[in-house]
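User: Please fill in residues for this 467-position structure.
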């Protein structure tokens, strides 16, 4: 049953998507991503592509030069009634014709007769989407550099900070916090390298006519697409890609991978900031509220939001791959999915990067507590060191069995490994007390943590500096 008060509301109900929400929009998108995928800006981008086509054809003598200049003059939203275009799209069921008609009408004399000369709708819209993806990747690159710079400093500062290394959610071996952060840096650096490698493949123009033959360009098609692409700062493909959507799929899946990396980092920060761990402390300012019921709460909302965005981006990756299944030389089924998928994965990935940057910039590390945790668990996390030392005397496999017995007895009986070892003269005879002290000190079993951190930070520095 409809609500009569709602029916009388002056609201036009234009904010139905979460990314456009006045209340939650900045948790799912960024001002930059909303600008890039703004409906009105998209119309202008289509007009920009039409102008670039006309100007390039004018330079090549395919249409009169003065006609090309007139089309370019008219190709702005100042000369177009957007409401009329919207109504035209609804009337015709076609996504571009209404805009072309408006552009034609805005041209003086008969210049409008040469609008869209030899092109097909998908040429314009695919090229415009490549321009959108270019802007997205510029934003992603900037955000990646911001977060990497912060994490490089964090890894460097904690290169030698002792902590527990965990596997299967249990204490495993000693490590450094610097090594953990270096793992994040290493993965994000590879994501940056993927972006660099992807751009020449993905960011290309489309201008090949109805089925990719360029027949409407009177033999000048190959040169036209080269010039057209260069004018728009895009690459020129060897042939049409109307149904070859691997470029778009690569864009979508790469962004989803970047969001996935952000999700992994955010979830680890969330876990290590739990009171049960208390190794990290999330940034907080007075006025933030964690609960309407429990005033004491300081919830890891930002970390949780990044994880949610990673899940949403992953779902878009599946849609992006689905768009690769197209038919013959043209097929709109995948394109209609792309228009939603390219935008959404961009919104969510950029939001994840932006939010995670604020998290890592504000996080603090309790180095003493982190190291104390490792020392408190020394009996467990130094088992490998003990096994390897005994292995030099009795063989590694035999030593594994001995240390297994000792550690499991200690754990089951609630005793220390030292106490259980004291009851094993066959073992203590092989180790003097001073050596045992060293073996059960987690700071002595850090392996090549520092060297690994140094290598990763050097690689990240090279990418950040553009080498």
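Assistant: Residues filled in for all 467 positions:
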């Amino acid at each position: 049953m409809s609500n009569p008060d709602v029916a009388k509301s002056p609201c036009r109900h234009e904010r139905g998507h979460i990314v456009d929400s006045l209340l939650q929009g900045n948790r799912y998108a960024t001002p930059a991503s909303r600008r890039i995928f703004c409906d009105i800006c998209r119309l202008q981008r289509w007009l920009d592509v039409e102008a670039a086509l006309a100007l390039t054809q004018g330079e090549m003598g395919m249409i009169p030069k003065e006609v090309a200049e007139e089309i370019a003059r008219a190709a702005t939203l100042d000369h177009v009634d957007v409401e009329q275009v919207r109504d035209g799209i609804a009337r015709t069921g076609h996504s571009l014709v209404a805009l072309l008609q408006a552009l034609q009408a805005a041209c003086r004399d008969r210049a409008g007769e040469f609008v869209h000369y030899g092109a097909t709708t998908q040429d314009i819209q695919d090229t415009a989407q490549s321009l959108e993806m270019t802007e997205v990747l510029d934003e992603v690159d900037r955000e990646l550099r911001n977060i990497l710079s912060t994490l490089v400093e964090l890894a460097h500062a904690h290169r030698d900070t002792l902590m527990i290394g965990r596997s299967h959610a249990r204490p495993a071996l000693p490590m450094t916090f610097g090594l953990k952060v270096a793992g994040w840096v290493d993965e994000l650096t590879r994501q940056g390298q993927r972006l660099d490698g992807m751009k020449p493949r993905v960011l290309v123009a489309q201008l090949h006519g109805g089925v990719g033959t360029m027949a409407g360009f009177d033999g000048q098609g190959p040169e036209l697409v080269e010039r057209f692409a260069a004018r728009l700062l895009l690459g020129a493909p060897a042939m049409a890609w109307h149904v070859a959507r691997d470029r778009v799929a690569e864009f979508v899946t790469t962004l989803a991978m970047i969001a996935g990396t952000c999700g992994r980092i955010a979830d680890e920060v969330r876990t290590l900031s739990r009171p049960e761990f208390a190794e990290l402390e999330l940034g907080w300012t007075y006025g933030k509220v964690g609960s309407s019921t429990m005033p004491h709460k300081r919830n890891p909302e930002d970390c949780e939001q990044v994880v949610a965005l990673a899940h949403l981006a992953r779902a878009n990756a599946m849609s992006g791959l689905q768009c690769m299944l197209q038919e013959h030389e043209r097929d709109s089924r995948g394109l209609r999915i792309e228009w939603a998928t390219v935008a959404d994965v961009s919104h969510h990935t950029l939001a994840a990067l932006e939010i995670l940057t604020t998290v890592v910039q504000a996080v603090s590390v309790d180095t003493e507590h982190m190291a104390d945790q490792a020392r408190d668990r020394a009996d467990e996390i130094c088992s490998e060191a003990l096994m390897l030392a005994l292995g030099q005397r009795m063989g590694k496999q035999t030593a594994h069995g001995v240390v297994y017995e000792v550690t499991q007895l200690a754990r089951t009986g609630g005793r220390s490994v030292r106490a259980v070892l004291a009851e094993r003269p066959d073992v203590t005879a092989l180790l003097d007390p001073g050596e045992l002290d060293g073996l059960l000190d987690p700071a002595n079993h850090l392996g090549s943590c520092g060297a690994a951190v140094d290598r990763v930070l050097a690689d990240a520095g090279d990418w950040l500096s553009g080498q």
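For context: The radius of gyration is 30 Å.
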